[in-house]
Amino acid sequence: MGTLRTLFLNPPSYAGFDGGAGARYQASREVRSFWYPTWLAQPAALIANSKLIDAPADDLGLEQVLQMAKGFELCIIHTSTPSFDNDVRVAGALKKASPDMIIGFVGAHVAVLPAAALRAAPVLDFVAREEYDYALLEVAQGQPWETVAGISFRRDGVIRHNPDRALIQDLDALPSVLDVYKRDLKIENYYNGYLLHPYLSLYTGRGCPARCTFCLWPQTVSGRTYRTRSAASVIAEMSRARALFPEVKEFFIDDDTFTANLPRAAEIARGLGRLGLVWSCNARANVPYDYLKLFKENGLRVLLVGYESGNQQILNNVKKGLRVDIAEEFTRNCSKLGILVHGCFILGLPGETKETISESIRFACRLNVDTIQVSIPAPYPGTELYRQVMANKWYEPSALVRNDGTQSCALSYPNLSAADIQAGVKRFYTRFYGRPTPIWRMLVRMARDPEERRRRLREGREFLRYLRGRSPDPAACGEDRPQARDSVPV
Ligand code: SF4
Predict the structure, then answer these.
(1) For position 193, what pLDDT does the model report?
(2) Could you tell me the pTM of the whole model?
(3) What residue spans define the domains of the chain?
(4) Pairwise CA distance, residues 476 & 468, whole Å
(5) Which CATH code for domain 192-367+419-465?
(6) Is residue 32 predicted with pLDDT exceeding 90?
(7) Which atom of ligand 1 lies nearest, measured to the CA of 256?
(8) Any residues with CB less than 8 A from the CB of 457 and at least 6 apart, and which?
(9) Rounded-to-integer distance, Cα 231 and Cα 460, Å
(10) Which of 168, 172, 282, 283 stands the most exposed, by the fewest C-beta atoms within 10 Å?
(11) Which has the minimum average pLDDT: 57-61, 101-105, 403-407?
């Protein structure tokens, strides 16, 4: 038996839904933006003759996907807690069109709840838990399922769980995702408000050593050790990326925390500097000045930084391992060096009050970072936050996303309602972007660059629509929201 013709599918979902094969929380964003579906591109690179379809990024509906799926024998769908029911419907339509097609789900949701997922969706033949790259290769190669570590499957009406699969240690052994990107993706469809367009993102390592209680991937699929590729292989891949995609303006290193191993990050930065690339990465708000300087001198443009809150007690509550004063010093250093910062904040973490929301807004304005993103915590199964929410009954009878795919608030506290949290997000954006500095900054850039002008005008319209649509009352979202199975409340 040869290798099964394998389709990797980021399924059609809510309009603009950034569903999890690359996104850390799954939702339609405030402005149209998508992460690369790298978690599907990686096993696709392992399996000959496979194909990757990223339906939301390419604006593909179910009918188009059904046409494109014809002839495939195995379909791997990346699912998430908020999109699970939708993704099961897509799987059902695929199975109806091709009854012999084997369908497997991957993603944090099924990694944590494999039995519940298989019970809830008889259309599923198997789910692959943990890091699934080699498990999917073995399935595609026709290895007996009883011998494939890390999968759960149905046999004779009984759900079986094979032993766990160890995390991959030799990341250099995995093939590059670049050829899959080149073959299957339209890179101009990947936007991000704070990255130059088009951008291209790659991983140089997996896992994060920090212990943030709300963070999905390290607690479910990628682990709490930062496993890395060698600097030499990263630099060689970036050089190839530049040759394959000469139109790319910025290369994004999407590791959870690229700065978790600073000497290695510095070695890679020097290599990127020699290549003359403009690059950006995720970073913690505690990188020392000398490293920031070295990164800047070697092409770093933007850092994505998870500040989360301006209140120290909240940072302690969620085990962020970060000090507010260090974060402020770090941000001043970035500003001094001309490194742009996209600041990520979360409203509604344990300990939040109306006062701490105001404190975080003041903090963000004081930091004066270039752009911000304000999220609501998503208590995903498998996270410590989820366990806390369930134990303390902090949940709201709400799905994780609304019927337009944007984030909804699925938790509330005795002293802070879901509506307060949602209103806080709106206030945060309005206060931060309503100041003269960000407006002026944006106008200057728009005046200098016609492409920037077109893009910002489009994003501005989308953002205003988002703000208008964000009702502070979750009950106003209607009864027709898809309720994520196994999400809060169970
Ligand atoms: S540092 Fe960032 S990636 Fe790492 S656990 Fe915390 S939130 Fe997640």
Answers:
(1) 84
(2) 0.90
(3) 6-157, 192-367+419-465
(4) 13
(5) 3.20.20.70
(6) no
(7) 3
(8) 446
(9) 39
(10) 172
(11) 403-407
- Which of left, alpha, beta for 89 (phi over 0: left; psi -120 to 50: alpha)? alpha
Residue pair 351/312 in contact by the 8 Å Cβ criterion? no
Distance CA(245)–CA(235), nearest Å, equals: 15
Q: For residue 439, what pLDDT is reported?
A: 85
Helix (H) or strand (E) holding 52: strand 51-54
The answer to whether residues 349 and 315 touch, using CB atoms and an 8 Å cutoff, is no
CATH topology identical between 6-157 and 192-367+419-465? no
Token pair, residue 369, equals 């970072």
Superfamily of the domain at 6-157:
Cobalamin-binding domain (3.40.50.280)
Residue ranges of alpha helices (H) inside 167-297 are 178-184, 216-220, 231-244, 262-275, 289-297
Looking at residue 465, its pLDDT comes to 72
From ligand 1's centre to the CA of 86, what distance in Å? 28
What does each C-alpha distance from 185 to 10, 42, 203, 318, 422 come to in angstroms?
A: 12, 13, 17, 36, 34
Record the tokens describing residue 279, joined without a space: 């690059």
Structure tokens at 164: 């766990």
For residue 19, the CA-to-ligand 1 centroid distance in Å is 19
The label of the residue with tokens 């530049």 reads 242
Angstrom distance (rounded) from CA 313 to CA 356: 10
Does ligand 1 lie within 6 Å of residue 150's CB atom? Answer: no
pLDDT digit string (tens) for 296-335? 999 999 999 999 999 999 999 999 999 999 999 999 999 9
DSSP string for residues in 305-341: EEEE-S-HHHHHHTT----HHHHHHHHHHHHHHT-EE
Taking the C-alpha atoms of residue 63 and residue 402, their distance in angstroms, rounded to an integer, is 23
**Ligand 1 site, residue 56, Cβ cutoff 6 A:** no
Whether the predicted pLDDT of 441 surpasses 90: no
